[in-house]
Design goal:
Layout (H helix, E strand, L loop, with lengths): L1 H50 L32 E7 L5 E6 L7 H10 L7 E2 L8 E6 L2 E6 L1 H74 L5 H26 L9 E4 H11 L1 H6 L3 E6 L4 E4 L1 H18 L5 E8 L3 E8 L20 H6 L6 H11 L3 E7 L2 E8 L1
Parallel strand pairs: 7-9
Antiparallel strand pairs: 1-2, 1-5, 3-4, 4-5, 6-8, 9-10, 10-12, 11-12
Helix pairs in contact: 1-3, 3-4, 4-9, 5-7, 7-9
Amino acid sequence: MDKLKKKVFWVIFLILTVFTTAVLGFYNTQQYNREKTSIVHNLNQAEGFRNEPDENAPRMDSSDIKPVLPKDDRMKYIRYMDKVVYTVVLDEDNSPGEVINHSQNEKTDDEIIEILNTLDVEEGKCKVGNLYTAQYSYSEKDSVVTIIDNEETNSRLVSTLLISLGILVALELLILFVSIKITKWITKPVQESFDKQKQFIADASHELKTPLAVIMASSDALESNPEEKRWLENIKSESERMNKLISDLLDLAKSEAVDDRSEFVQGNLSKTVEKSVLTFEGIMFEKGITLDYSIDENIEIEMNEYRIYQLMSILIDNAIKHCSENGKISVCLKKEKDVVLTVSNTGEGIPKGEEERIFERFYRADESRNRNENRYGLGLAIAKNIVSSHGAEISAFSENGITTFKTVFK
């Protein structure tokens, strides 16, 4: 069970972690691409100013496409740029010539040339670089180098990344808490089933242990006193108890195969119920119990006829066992919105709060009485499994001295 919980936890935790990481990674990638697009846009803008002059653009020499920018005109580009941009015009020997600072910072021409010298400028190339680490981006065309300072971009991207990592850490703590809660919720039915299985094995072992102990003791006594017949009677009686228990356990195992619908056919539920009731009519008469039944005709459902007959046998037998002296048992089958089957008896009711527990395996309200009658508390558990296999629901309640078992076929 612990291994299952760990597997479920790690699956949930990893799925949520991967999803969260993917969302934050996608956000940071989008931010990165936006910044890169902005830088490329600024580089293209600078080239546009150089190649498409107008009345507000720098003066162009008619014999050369290189810009001739007087120092008074250097600041005219500021309103067009959202980055810190420098332009360096290269001479014929590729040495730095005119330098233009398109920003409002205080960088001198020498400082800008020094920046240019740190770049491995390739002719006709545009290089943006890693915006988390690269200090500058550039493009070179027609002996003019446009340089963009990435400092603000670096700062924004690193800040966004650090914030994302902080959010991821916080979300991981939340994911840890959520994963634990979801794991408990998912594995709760399995845990309950596992606990019931352990309890079932313990109860079955206990029930088998008692008759086996009696049989062994009686066998030893019979060996010492071969003429004493009562030891044989004890062995026979306890063997019958074991046989009944094993038979019930097999029926329970078969009834739990709820997915096996190979033997289900469209059948007449009315006839099956009526046949079951009439089978017990003689037993009720001998015990002085009044039988009252009302069964609507020709109600058909998809069913396993043998299991329905077994269900009726369990419910009616249970009603007889718990019916008061000279009491009454009523069986009713009605077709309303759903098909409703009820089996009621007068007598001592179900203890309050035990209405659900009576369907548990090995549950017995009166331990001593049931043991004397070779009843192991498996009948109603089998009945519930049969009902479930038919897609129906069963419930029990006691009111005004009458106990009713109600089965609804949807």
